[in-house]
Amino acid sequence: MERTFLMVKPDGVQRNLIGDIVSRFENKGFQLVGAKLMQVTEELAQQHYGEHKERPFFGELVDFITSGPVFAMVWEGENVISTARLLVGATNPTESAPGTIRGDYAVTVGKNIIHGSDSPESAVREIGLFFKEEELVSYDKTMSTWII
Ligand code: IDP
């Protein structure tokens, strides 16, 4: 069973989209195993977005993700990493399909509402950056037999 890291960015929190976003992943059939509203520090932002350090928009990215609270989550399910990316939509909202989170709510790449891990390696790294092991809860839902 895979786990992925998803985060409603400050624009999504300010636009009251936490509930809608959680519902989309619940309705799909994935299971929430950890969540918290938190303020990302400059240090955490730089670690999280480390792969973009040399990009011209890095400073903007760090400023944005630290500009207000985010809603950090860990979700579990079969193929959750790649499927969650489909639900999130393409990075640039000019290319994200209607029906995806970014396709439905975002206009510009710098304010694209949500982050989702892009690979198993990123998922492990990002979950470790944002959550302590004891903040994650494994549990069974009887409904899961109707999903997988
Ligand atoms: P992803 O979030 O879809 O995985 P990445 O390429 O990892 O996309 O980029 C991380 C984040 O950096 C994007 O979600 C977006 O908010 C921001 N970003 C990417 N490209 C640009 C850009 O050209 N200008 C401003 N921000 C960008």
TrEMBL record:
Keywords from the UniProt entry: ATP-binding, Cytoplasm, Kinase, Magnesium, Metal-binding, Nucleotide metabolism, Nucleotide-binding, Phosphoprotein, Transferase
Presence of keyword Magnesium: yes
Co-factor requirement: Mg(2+)
GO cellular component: cytoplasm
Gene Ontology biological-process entries: CTP biosynthetic process; GTP biosynthetic process; UTP biosynthetic process
Enzyme class, UniProt record, top EC level: transferase
Reactions accelerated catalytically: dZDP + ATP = dZTP + ADP; a ribonucleoside 5'-diphosphate + ATP = a ribonucleoside 5'-triphosphate + ADP; a 2'-deoxyribonucleoside 5'-diphosphate + ATP = a 2'-deoxyribonucleoside 5'-triphosphate + ADP
UniProt-annotated location(s): Cytoplasm
Location (main, coarse): cytoplasm
Cited InterPro entries: NDK-like_dom, NDK-like_dom_sf, Nucleoside_diP_kinase, Nucleoside_diP_kinase_AS
Keyword Cell membrane: no
EC numbers on record: 2.7.4.6
Chain ranges of the Nucleoside diphosphate kinase-like domain: 1-138
Binding site for ATP: K9, F57, R85, T91, R102, N112
Ranges in coiled-coil conformation: none
SUPFAM superfamilies per the UniProt record, alphabetical: Nucleoside diphosphate kinase, NDK
Active site: H115 (pros-phosphohistidine intermediate)
Domain of life: Bacteria
Molecular function terms, GO-annotated: ATP binding; metal ion binding; nucleoside diphosphate kinase activity
Entry similarity comment: Belongs to the NDK family.
Subunit structure: Homotetramer.
Cited function: Major role in the synthesis of nucleoside triphosphates other than ATP. The ATP gamma phosphate is transferred to the NDP beta phosphate via a ping-pong mechanism, using a phosphorylated active-site intermediate. (Microbial infection) Catalyzes the phosphorylation of dZDP to dZTP, when the bacterium is infected by a phage that produces the substrate for the synthesis of dZTP (2- amino-2'-deoxyadenosine 5'-triphosphate), which is then used by the phage as a DNA polymerase substrate.
Protein name: Nucleoside diphosphate kinase
Organism: Sporosarcina pasteurii (Bacillus pasteurii)
Gene: ndk
